[in-house]
Amino acid sequence: MKKLIMILALAFSIIACKTETKKTEGSLERSESATETPFLAMGEFDTKAGDFINKEVKIQGIVDHVCKHSGKKLLVVTDDGSVHITSDTRFEDTLTGSEISLTGIVLEERIDESYCLQMEDDNIKSHSEGATNDELFETKKKHIQQYRDQMKAENKDYLSSYSLKYVSHIEVE
Amino acid sequence: MKQLRKWSRILHRDIGYFFIGTTIIYGLSGIALNHMSDWNPNYSVKVNNFTTSINLEKSSSTKNNILLLLDEIDNRKNYKKHYYPNSNNLKIFLKGGSSIMVNVATGNGMAEYLKRRPVFYEVNFLHYNPNRIWTWFSDAFSASLILFAITSFFMVKGKKGIKGSGGIYTALGILIPLLFLIYYL
After folding, report:
1. How far is Cα B134 from Cα B124, in angstroms, rounded to an integer?
2. Chain B residues with CB inside 8 Å of A79's CB?
3. d(CA B112, CA B7)
4. Which residues of A touch B91 (CB under 8 A)?
5. Counting beta carbons within 10 angstroms of the beta carbon of residue B106, is it exposed (0 to 12), middle (13 to 18) or buried (19 or more)?
6. Is there a contact between B133 and A16 if contact means CB atoms under 8 Å apart?
7. Residues from chain A contacting residue B15 (CB–CB below 8 Å)
8. Which residue of B has its CA nearest to A16?
9. Does B128 sit within 8 Å of A90, measured CB to CB?
10. CA end-to-end span of chain A, whole Å?
């Protein structure tokens, strides 16, 4: 048993050293690339993000919300707008209310008729299963109709919704 | 066979002792996180409704007015940041994850105070793999669970062993997830 504990202690100390080294290398790479990253103001994100699809951009705002389920989604806001962030790693919920400068890759999601139909199906299914109440069901229904109305008004087959895939962030004082 | 039984018992017992704490961590957090849609597993939430006469419309003195509001209903030292989600509402973030939403036109507001749930906050934090070292440790724990399953085949002989009632329990334990898969997948 003593041997087992010693082996485990040794293994963890080796892993700890390796992990620290990797972290340092990662942050160096990030700081080098950060100097060239274009900055998008939150108020212009929706209109300009289309020019940077699959490219890195930088934004700055306050973390309004960290997803309580996965911890891998953020909503970053300012008075002028908001941006959804997705990540492969979890965020600390203590990040809520902090002002951050965040670098991420612009992702485009296209909302078209098939997307609306899928949303409709999901809405009906979750409502019939009792997962959503009448109010939420009606709200989602209106939301889907808004998408359709907007596509019609803009004479487009789809709407683009932009978000960021998280790369790195720093807290701003 | 005698040696296999002996070592199965030793490993099952000693590694079992070693991972008692980890088993409790994953057991508690597993229940807490399974019911995430019914409660907030990390924080208890207390809501406090209030009305204020302080002018919180967007202006150059907004920050000062927010601090005056916090003097009234909380503590100005807890101020973190604020923003206007729309022209009618102001959201103030407080230290510790709490927040306040105020309708600047009516002065009606709602403060949502979050308080960490003792024990649950800590076990949930670990459940979500806070770093690589914990990932390795929890991998070792998961591997030990497989080892427990294997060693349990050889630990007891006779009618309570795998050839007796132990075998029936094992079959039932495998059958239940299989039935779920057949029905729901």
Report:
1. 13
2. 58, 83-84
3. 55
4. 64
5. exposed
6. yes
7. 4
8. B133
9. yes
10. 50
Q: From the CA of A126, how many Å to the nearest CA of chain B?
A: 14
Q: What's at B128, amino acid-wise?
A: Y
Please tell me if residue A96 touches chain B, with a CB cutoff of 8 Å: yes
Distance in angstroms (rounded) separating the CA atoms of residues A141 and A116 = 10
| Partner-chain residue, chosen from A68, A78, A97, that has the shortest CB–CB distance to B94 | A97
Cβ-contact A82, B83 below 8 angstroms: no
Q: Residues A104-136: pLDDT tens digits?
A: 999 999 999 999 999 999 989 888 888 788 888
Answer whether B40 sits within 8 Å of A68, measured CB to CB: yes
Distance between first and last Cα of chain B: 40
- pLDDT tier for residue A70 given thresholds of 50, 70 and 90: confident
| Binding-face residues of A in 98-157 toward B, CB within 8 A | 98-99
User: pLDDT (tens digit, 0 to 9) for every residue of chain B, 185 residues total?
Assistant: 889 999 999 999 999 999 999 999 999 999 999 998 788 898 999 999 999 999 999 999 999 999 999 999 999 999 999 999 998 999 999 998 899 999 999 999 999 999 999 999 999 999 988 888 999 999 999 999 999 999 999 998 888 998 899 999 999 999 999 999 999 88
Compute and round to an integer the Cα radius of gyration of chain A. 21
Least confident of A22-26, A57-61, A156-160: A22-26
- Tell me whether residues B97 and A93 touch, CB distance under 8 A: yes
**CA–CA separation, A27 and B85 (whole Å):** 33
Q: What is the ipTM of this complex?
A: 0.72
